[in-house]
């Protein structure tokens, strides 16, 4: 038994469910008929495009030090981050990378240099 609701309400009864499924299948049938009416369907170029993987896995030989400037540009352009926010997020990673490299005995002039201690570590 259905009660009248607003237009956005989806009734959970079997009758309304089958009605919506029937409407969806009618739309799908219309698309299928139009596709079959096209000469040369299915198009081999379209199928070929989906079968070829354009993204080739890149084999990494080792980790590189993240580049702050290129990351900031990427984050601003693709993720709409501010430059300040991107810098805050990457500085943690840069610190981690530099500390691990320093611990393993590598020295690099590009490594971060501490100017002062802001917060002391509590054990």
Automatic annotation (TrEMBL):
Protein name per UniProt: Uncharacterized protein
Organism: Micrurus lemniscatus lemniscatus
